[in-house]
Records
---
Amino acid sequence: MKLAYKTNFGKLYQSTVESFFNDSLYNKLRGKINLIFTSPPFPLNRKKKYGNLQGEEYLNWFKSLAPKFKELLAPDGSIIIELGNSWEKNKPTMSILSTKSFISFLENGGFILCQQFIWYNPAKLPGPAQWVTVERIRVKDSFTNLWWMSNTEKPKANNKNVLEEYSESMKKLLKNGKYNSGKRPSEHNIGDITFLKNHNGSIPSNVIIAANTHSQTNYQKYCKENDIIPHPARMPYDLPKFFINFLTEPGDIVFDPFAGSNTTGSVAEELKRNWISLEPEENYINGSKGRFGF
Ligand SMILES: C[S@@+](CC[C@H](N)C(=O)[O-])C[C@H]1O[C@@H](n2cnc3c(N)ncnc32)[C@H](O)[C@@H]1O
């Protein structure tokens, strides 16, 4: 484990997750991590740039991580794993490998599934290309899954920390106080008193909409200036931001074992959470420095 750099709140180690498990740091961190937030190499049925494992081999590797991650969590800690959809090689059919890998991980770790989220990326390029843009027999695959797990049914979480801005019509309602209360066709009875209370924002849903285009400008500029190939699978800033705000407090520890361009670490830094990240590839580590103004 080589310390690649450190900041006010965190450290990035050049390491695989396997080396980390054999390091004394792993023992030191047992029971202390408040949030593991990560996007592991995806279970592809073909090789991608950073050498993903394939098929059953992937599933077995991925599931073997679960008991190790479990040990790291604080008693009320959470783990969020982002996993994309997988497709069969050369076929217009989806593979269940991604879902199977997740279920094996959940079961092997003995985790509780708190909630499923999806990240919808409206700017996602059409793919799988052959079936979507050439033959036009499938539509764009434009979301990934984020699985929220814990060792407890009630991990630390507060949706008041991730409220969304009220819609214009709701703001108007709150201002003029007039609302057509009563029974809805859905049989829901809308009483005006509770509905019109200002809660400082609306409760978000489990569909997170974020394009992967903005907030990356400085990173890309830094990579260009320093002749670094940008990470091909960066997540948008808004993804870790949502979960770090929702599931942790300032001073907590956020861990990303597959940091890539260290989006998680940079968001944690901004939100004043302590963070630890791992990434084995030097090129990605060098690019990630651009997120911290090195
Ligand atoms: C999907 S990417 C993460 C992208 C990241 N969320 C971001 O926003 O840049 C997965 C990363 O895991 C790294 N990786 C692959 N195998 C690994 C291993 N055994 N241990 C740790 N990291 C690994 C890859 O180099 C890659 O950068």
---
Amino acid sequence: MRYASISDRLDGLGSHKWAVHVAGRQRAHAGEELIFLSIGEPDLPPPAAVLEQAAASLFAGRTRYADGQGEPVARRAIAGHLSRRSGLDVDQHQIVYTAGTQQGLFVVMATLVEAGDEVVVPDPYYATYESVVASTGASFVPVPTLPEDDFHLRPEALEAAITPRTRVLLLNTPSNPTGAVLSPDEIDAIGEVCERHDLWIVCDEVYADLTFEAHFCSPFDRPQLRHRAISVASISKSHALPGFRAGWAACPPEVTPRVTAVAEAMNFGSQPFIADAVAVALNQEHAEVVTMKRTFHERASAMVRALAGSEAVKVHMPEGGMFVMADIRPTGLSGEEFAWKLLDERHVVVMPGESFGSRGAGHIRLALTVDTDAMDEACHRIRSLAEELHAAR
Ligand SMILES: Cc1ncc(COP(=O)(O)O)c(C=O)c1O
């Protein structure tokens, strides 16, 4: 039997990146006690008002087919949210509702690129980006970012990676895994390079509401970049509702019908009762959202404090998001080797930096998704393993 080439291109780009996490899950299921710092699933409760709306709409019969571009009630709320954020007008017709950021990235990429095109992506990058780009047939071109720049993309590095085939810059701010938050000046300088080379900027903003001291900035919010910028996000992280699969792509007006056509080919519409809940999520302030942002900030500071001063493991304070990257190169192990050893010997589950690109090598990524006691204990175990390995070298 024959298969389409997409399945060859995606072979090996999927779940093996989560192998340590999957093994941890199996061991936990078999009764082992483990501390999970592996995936970015908020542990704090979602806003009660959003859940109440979903339940009320469910019982009110909002269970029929939805508009293919997304229910107007949700698109209006998303457009309102983005307008308030930027101070610029965003119209509901610019919004395509998607099943989370992940589907948003997929439909946008499928709309913009194909075989023969190149997509440039700052490295380290989120673990699914390679497969999203590969699914279109386009080539994935990593652009190195460096720990000494706090993993911020330099315009010169971007420029050096661009060829006549480059069509899209795929950005992610705040970044998973690095926690880098690009400033308005950086966005403008990067945007200027994209302008010169006529590139689309697709920006994954799923952590936009989780910045600490840094101020969030999107290319979609910059007047001079709006015609080439697409903002993709969801309420998965901001409202602790990843299971709702509720996200969006906000596009320049002429792009929206094309993205909508791809989204309709894929799943023609979403769940109206969830769309109503998204409207409540974005139209109102929620104490739970404020608490979550404060809690992730506090946990990031606590984790950095717990690992500070070690010769064997080096961390720096993330500017946003839900993760801390720890450099374990002084131990002499790769991120992957360290993560397996940590699981086997200290019962802590983390993601190897290699799952996020070659620039993540020699690092582990720690999620801030457990309470402070568990986090302190995990940091103690990480530190003691790293220091033992370092001393033995
Ligand atoms: C950077 C990044 N983009 C996208 C996603 C997927 O988000 P969603 O649940 O909105 O599909 C995640 C989830 O961890 C993420 O970290």
---
Amino acid sequence: MIRKNDLSQAFLKPDTRVLFQIGDTAEYIMTNDSGVTPAQLRVFTACPDGKILSEGYRLADRPSVPGELKPADRTFADLAPGFCERTDPVTDGLLGLAVGDAFGVPLEFLPRSTVQKLHITEMLGCDCDLPFTSRWGDRIPRGAWSDDTAMTVASMTSIVEKNGEIDFEDIMKHFILWWNANRYSSLDFSFGLGNNIKHALDRFQYGMQPALQCGGKDFRDNGNGALMRMFPFSIYCIFKEMDDGETLDLIRKAAGITHANEINAMCCYVYTQFLFECLRTKNPALAYRCAVTDRKASYGELFSVETMEALALLFDGLAGSSFDKDRIRESGYVVDSLLTALYSVLHTENFENAILTAVGFGYDTDTNAAITGSIAGAMYARKGIPARWLSVLRKQEELTGLAKAFSACIG
Ligand SMILES: [Mg+2]
């Protein structure tokens, strides 16, 4: 069950300082205060304007207990400058998603063996002197993001325009606007539409099907095109403090408008749980234990035996140092993309290396890096995204503005 208060139960490294803001108040957790032992956390709860509501200390391995935090009457401005940091997981996750997408676009569909030989570490574009032949020829400039970000933006725009309501008919209309009218694109044309999504959009606009009946239900409909745009729906569940049943219901529908097979629902649900635990713990290994290992029996109750078997590798030591990453195939299959993203976050310690690892898996490089970037961006925050990548990202201000509006209407 997802609960807002769980977000304060952080297990932090001794030198980290974190603020996680959700709703109107936030909990600041500091461990570098001179009076704090490694087992202790200094904790504040505060309003967005910096007014401190309560403060005190608690042990790092358990939540605060009643009476431990005392009422306060001061602001963060009264503390030393730079004493605490604010993070905004919606903005940072969306920027991380877009950066990963843009980084992977030129390399899309290159084999893993080719990508690994290239050792690309900089954001490239088809307007650069590429050391390989891109599927996009010379059409896509550096910093341009594709369908993954565009459909995420389209979803968020719909939710903002509906004042925080999720209306799947309206979201599908926004998807149509993206593909038919070049809205929500980083360039003046749309690109990257996948087959599963094309069929779903055709059912919606030509077959007059309700949005929730447009997603393909067959096994072959298990592309990664729902997982790549799941970030805002997952954040919505977290911000709304939905329980497991409510979360699965929303995630299943959000995926199902384009991908209605149960394997897709489970992948998007696992992604949501892992994202939440990464935000809560700031510790990918612990997040994996909480979201995956400890919940295996729970997943078994929610999903069929066949679906659990399809995701067997998820539970088979993915976080371990001895895990052979070549067990994860290079494809556009949603299970492979989920495993690629989780592996890339689990086996790295910063945003940059998470993206480089995801891209190194080859094939669907932009989608894999977009999914990875949404988690890593939200967890490591904007300061963790390399400035040299952000500086060339297209429409960064629009993305930031949309994220702020989205946070405001779902908070
Ligand atoms: Mg794409």
